[in-house]
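Design review, sub-item: ligand-bound model
Attendees: FS, YL, KQ
YL presented the inputs for the 3,4-dihydroxyphenylalanine complex:
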Amino acid sequence: MDMKEILKGLVENAKQRISESENPEKLNDVRVAYLGKKGELTALLKSMKDVAPEERPAFGQMVNDVRKEIESMLTDTQKELAARMLEKKMKTEVIDVTLPAKKAMIGHRHPNTIALEEVERIFIGMGYEVVEGPEVEYADYNFTKLNIPEDHPARDEQDTFFINDSILLRSQTSPVQARKMEEGKLPIRMIAPGRVFRSDEVDATHSPSFHQIEGLVIDKKITFADLKGTLQEFARELFGPETKTKFRPHHFPFTEPSAEVDVSCFKCGGSGCRFCKGSGWIEILGCGMVHPNVLRMCGIDPEEYTGFAFGVGLERIALLKYEIDDMRLLYENDTRFLKQF
Ligand code: DAH
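KQ shared the predicted structure:
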């Protein structure tokens, strides 16, 4: 058969197969079948040796023309296929910009954090600074310098976790008082919030790890009246302007005299309810005038300076203020609970 006829047939066939290729893979099969190493055109070129030498240039030219023709058909179809696929993709993956957006979840502040920020706001407003101390503390600061010598029963009351004989997880924030006094810069007006530890079993009102806020004021001529006025104002700010306070005599080794402070129940106003267990009062903190022994051990002359101190349980404030009846809820990190605040 005439070579021209053969090539013409080949082009026709290729055209047919190209037009039938509905995806890039099929199209590639066609490319391999005609232009590949074992493809039909390559086979034709190999048969060149059977062609008479004088006809070879014309033959070669014809084969090359056909190759170009098939190549350009392949390229065109490939572009067409790509465009068609893109269009199809765009049609199936439509983005509906009118749909409502997914709301970004913004977290909530923990009730402890809210209560702490509230307490800090009140004391900063009265000119206090906020200081911090270490959670892993020397027994010396946690006890001795606070007038709780070795073998004093108060050490057992605050049984805690010892790292070794002289280092422990602090059982109270009071050691920050001693650290601050030792710095020697007077006067002092500070609160020290932080985590404390005790070997307590977990129940509705206890946890082996909780938070306290320590307060300390040292200056010349500080009296119990300053203590009363300050804590009264604190209670009013925290629980409302109607709040009354009651100072009950108590004992703490590091203060003398010492007191516990109750506030009138902000639920019933003092008439007695479930919240205050019928008494009309709720205990909120411990306080007192800094013991002269403590001042002396921390390098302050008790003849020249006096001061008062207090300690508040942060969880207690959070539970009271937000009417939460189980402390465990504060630690479980259940978002159903936390997102109410
Ligand atoms: N640290 C005491 C406690 O954990 C609380 C306290 C009471 C602190 C009276 C004080 C204070 O500074 O004056 O029970």
